[in-house]
Amino acid sequence: MAEQARGAASPARYGFTDDRAEAQLRAAGWWTDTGPAPECLDVLSALSRSADPDLALRELERIRESDPEGWTSLAAALRDDPNLRGRLISVLGTSSALADFLVGSPGEWKRLAHDKCTDTDCYADELLTAVRTEPGSEATLTGTPAEQALRAGYRGLLLEIAAADLGHTVEQRLDRPPYTEVTGQLTALAEAALIAGLAVARTEHKAHEAEDARLAVIAMGKCGGRELNYVSDVDVIFVGEGDLQLVTRLASAMMRVVGNSCFEVDAALRPEGKAGALVRTLDGHTAYYKKWARTWEYQALLKARPVAGDKELGRQYVEMVDSMVWAAAERENFVADVQQMRRRVEKHVPSELAERELKLGRGGLRDVEFAVQLLQLVHGRADPELRSPSTMDALDALGAGGYVGRADAAELEVSYEFLRTVEHRLQLRRLRRTHLFPDASETAELRVLARAIGIKPERGRSAGDVLLAEFRRHGQRIRRLHEKLFYRPLLQSVASVPMEALRLTTKQAARRLAALGYAAPDGALQHIRALTSGVSRRASIQHALLPVILDLLADTPDPDGGLLAYRKVSEALAETPWYLRVLRDEGAVVERLAFMLGTSKLVPDLLVRAPEVLQLLGDPTRLAGRDPAEVAKSLRATVRRQPGLNAAVAAARSLRRHELLRVASADLLGLMDVRRVCEALSSIWVAVLQGALAAALRKKNAETGDSPLAKIAVIGMGRLGGAELGYGSDADVLFVCEANEGVPDSDGIRFASSVAETVSQALGQPSADPPLHVDSDLRPEGRGGPLVRTLESYRAYYARWSELWEAQALLRARFIAGDDELGARFIAMIDEIRYPDGGLDAAQVREVRRMKARVQAERIPRGTDHTLNTKLGRGGLADVEWTVQLEQLRHARELPALRTTSTPDALSALTEAGLMDAADADSLSEAWLLATRVRNAVMLVRGKAVDQVPGSGRDLAAVARVLGQAEDDDPGEFLDFYRKVTRRAHTVVERVFFED
User: Fold this and answer.
1) What is the distance, to the nearest Å, from the Cα of residue 326 to the centroid of all Cα atoms in its chain?
2) Cα Rg, the chain, nearest whole Å
3) Around Cβ 248, how many Cβ atoms within 10 Å?
4) Which distant-in-sequence residues (6+ apart) come within 8 Å of 968 by Cβ?
5) What is the pLDDT of residues 603-613, one digit of tens each?
6) How far apart are CA 431 and CA 421, in angstroms?
7) Is CATH 3.30.460.10 the right assignment for the domain spanning 2-330?
8) Region Adenylyl transferase: which residues (predicted)?
9) What is the pLDDT of residues 879-906, one digit of tens each?
10) Alpha-carbon torsion 938, 942, 947, 949, what sign?
11) DSSP class of residue 496?
């Protein structure tokens, strides 16, 4: 029992592992033979909560031994004053270097006993007082005495900052100061040291009375941004006027005094670096930056801030560089230069340390700083709110202004603060400049570091393990967001917009719009004002996006129409939370959207009703790579789940709209060839018919309460049958039925007709989308014949009454919906009709030729250029299709390879069979594919189906661009190309189709 009691009262209970701990505690009067002294429990508890209890106790022992007389009052204060207790013990358990200062400076611990531990307003006065020869005098100590006095004053104030920063980890009643407050205090202390160092330098060089020796000290880097570490070089630039030799001596002396006392003063960021003059005049700086400065120097100047010396000269310097800094983004390759510089810095980190390097490694502090500075320099030209030298303030402004997503900005701030806190605790240990996170194997170091930060064990994991996991998580987050923001394609586009173009509401902007090619710049400015008016976040993001979008639209065939479309889309999607975020964060999306809006009238109309497709624009694989069969399967499954016919048709329309827009977007962007486009459009049309037919059958069965009276099959004809639909094509179909067993044919036909009418009417309802017109005019007897026939009725009709044109139409028939078995029997039956035994005799061939001539003469619109009609014009779709179909009618019976509904496939089969010269087939195929592409392009450009190629104007330019013509090429060249291809094909048609 006695041993158990002693174990319970062991120093190990308070986190001590050193064998000397009990002796040290006894010597301090905090431990007795029976265990902890009751009046000292608060002290022991505070020691147990420190980062390293053994270190804290050991340093207290050193203080006791070095100042026995002062120990009594310190021990009493530790017992009675929780503020002092928390601050002092937290420092001693974290920083051996500050403990050394306390040991060597008896009584300095009293700094920590005040209600407010540190006051930045007094830093400069305190350090100046420390180096003065006497109160009220401008004269200071010089040489080593001055350096020693400055060092002692600096360390004392640094102790106050560290104690205020760390105290909450030991004493919960102490508040944790914000990270920015700590860095602000460290920066204020550095500024005070520079001021005191300059005062010493003036005394050493007797320059107090030298009116012609003006020197301004400009802080750069972290000091300029008010975000210094505990141990940092302080980057400065010196600006002088008057006696430059004296001013240079003053700068050198200040660097020596401060460097020997407090921290290294680094002037390497000055013009020409270490090889350049230490001090330059304001005019000298101006001339250098205008002529010789490189991109990284402008980036560094973003944080320039006067901190010591001649205030007016410092103000003039910052005013001078300010205009240059915020114009730097317009330099050629500016964004690429900044990105390349970050990659160079990263390469210099040894690979074995890259994952532990807090500052320069992947996911380190520089990732955040480079990303923030690049965004500032690009967007800050037009938004003064972004012009802060502080990384955290700039992040806040970027998030508030919409340049960075709120969540992204918040995550970066949290992760940046975490890494900076880790860096601070590492540096406090020995007051050495370090940025290297402990190795995972250094468990003791990780434990102490975690406790210094305030991290506790959780869920069976030690504090060190939790810290390591947090370090990795924050590093991965920073790297992900860095790559998202720093390499954002939109940055280069914004940077390339001239400064004056960013001021969108001025008269200069109207002139620029006119110069860019906007036909109605006043109207464009109205759209701009509508999009950017107000102070909402949405308006801020639009203000950042519009300069880029205006430039991108200027490169499209119709900038004015594109801007109007952009306004309509933006207003329609104003409440869609991700819309502007996608445009801001995905440069490729902006570029592609601008091209589509300035080229197509169909896309904007679809986009406002299917906005989700916008998110696919940044991923060409997802945009163009979907398998039509998978799309059709998904549509059928969705439609099948709907509760009724109307809901099923609405779902089918919605999914078709999505697919139309996806395919149209991929088509416009050149990501899908014409055959894939036609296949995808045909597949989605077939799926819509399948879903609508199934829904109509369910509705009919629900109304009658009986099982279906007949089987129904839908046969695709024309372009639907050939899987060659365009954006505006109707669905040519035949409806076939067969009464179920025991049901009279009349009842079966009535049932099937009702279902077919229901499908046609439901799909044919007016809509803003391209129409869903089901056309059954190719049925026997045309519009005058019954909508639905039985299989046997079709067989009888074709055997007795059908004409040659009907056999020709059946060449493209294929089963697409309904009963599989009935559809297969119909296809087998019509094979006898469309692939006639023995082919065609001479009279039948002449009849086909007469039919084609009559159709071409009667149906092509009068007054139009026949050479530019994609369907019936010279070398157009009809020319090629009639030629192919004539050969199929003549030879498909003996050549099964010709039994295809696809025109290009039939051409290939004719070549392989030796029935057509390969060069002729190539000419026909090229013309057919070109006419199909042009027909689709006209629909995309005009938003309505037209068979005529535009002869001039913006529509022609847009069609030419869709087909791949360069922006600067003459659209007339495209017309010449179209005529050449179709003329060559027509020559083949004249020879192959019309010659015996």
Assistant:
1) 24
2) 41
3) 18
4) none
5) 999 999 999 99
6) 14
7) yes
8) 498-996
9) 999 999 999 999 999 999 999 999 999 9
10) negative
11) T
